[in-house]
Amino acid sequence: MSDPPDGLPPLREVIARHGLAAKKSLGQNFLLDLNLTGRIARAAGPLDGVTVIEIGPGPGGLTRALLAEGARKVIAVERDERAIVALDEIAQRYPGRLDVIAGDALAVDLRPSTLAGPVRVVANLPYNIATPLLVSWLTAEPWPPWFDRLVLMFQREVAERIVAPPGGKQYGRLSVLAGWRARAKILFDVHPSAFVPPPKVTSSIVELVPRPDVLPCERPLLERVTAAAFGQRRKMLRQSLKSLNADPLPLLAAAGIEPTRRAEEIPVEGFVALTRALQAAKIGS
Ligand code: SAM
């Protein structure tokens, strides 16, 4: 195999030298193929002038690709101490362009303190915290958020739930939240054999571009409505929405939705209309 073009050691060597045997508890499935990490970085590009937030750089394959593709700066948050040491070599290769934050991405405030140019989140996410991280970004306030795009690797099944349109089994709370706040699409799939160790399932790269013109409604109430509706997804809405502690029939009438409909048939606009009806009912009561 030829040497990596960035002059840094091959990733297998980095892993061996730093004893970075993958830990399941940290959701570690590393990408060692620099062609693939380059493809992901290009899918997130162009990166000139862009600050990239990367969650879980691990041995740094994607980090290197993001820097080689011209990211102004990469701010990488990593929980595994072993990887922090390994990443130092990349920081030296790209002076002033890689900041590594040692910590838990769920606990760190990822919003950069100085905003010079666009900020983008690009990551091969640890699968065990991928959904909570996505929800934290999609529920950012104020909106439009501090990032201009999310380009993220998920297990294929989660990716399908994020981009699902109404009418199918995959459509649920995550699809409504993602569809409400962003335009989401699957860019490409990644076969298990691309990772070390290979996971059991196929993965997908998902792109989410924040909508500047989100339909107005109170976000916590929207989440309550979708939780009630999809919590009993096989029931008609006139039944499932009873858990909202408001009479569902006037809410459904105000939203222009037939009471016999089920959650998975309702598009994002329908859930927003229901949320606004609930808001109005609460103000009126
Ligand atoms: N980016 C690397 C790659 O593509 O080869 C590694 C991806 S691996 C799927 C997920 C990475 O997230 C691991 O390096 C793991 O140590 C890190 N990680 C796991 N939980 C984390 C957390 N709570 N906060 C930050 N990083 C975490």
Give helix and strand order, one letter per element, not per position. HEHEHEHEEHEHHEEEHHHH
Secondary structure: number of strands? 9
What is the terminal-to-terminal distance?
70 Å
Structural class: alpha/beta
Amount of beta strand: 15-25%
What is the chains' assembly state?
single chain
Hetero groups in this structure are: S-adenosylmethionine
Q: Average pLDDT across residues?
A: 95
Number of helices: 11
Please bin the fraction of helical residues: 25-40%
CA-atom Rg in angstroms:
21 Å
Task: Describe this protein with a few key phrases.
285 residues; alpha/beta; two-stranded antiparallel ribbon; 11 helices; elongated; binds S-adenosylmethionine
How does this model look, in words?
- This protein has 285 residues and is α/β, with parallel strands linked by helices.
- Helices cover 37% and strands 18% of the residues.
- It contains eleven helices and nine strands.
- A seven-stranded mixed beta sheet has the order 4-3-2-5-6-9-7. Strands 1-8 form a two-stranded antiparallel sheet.
- Strand 3 (73-78), helix 4 and strand 4 (98-102) form a beta-alpha-beta unit.
- Helix 2 (34-43) packs across helix 3 (61-68).
- The longest helix has 17 residues, at 268-284.
- It is elongated and about 65 Å long.
- The model has no long low-confidence stretch (mean pLDDT 95).
- S-adenosylmethionine is lined by residues 26-31, 55-58, 61-62, 77-80, 83, 104-106, 124, 126, 129.
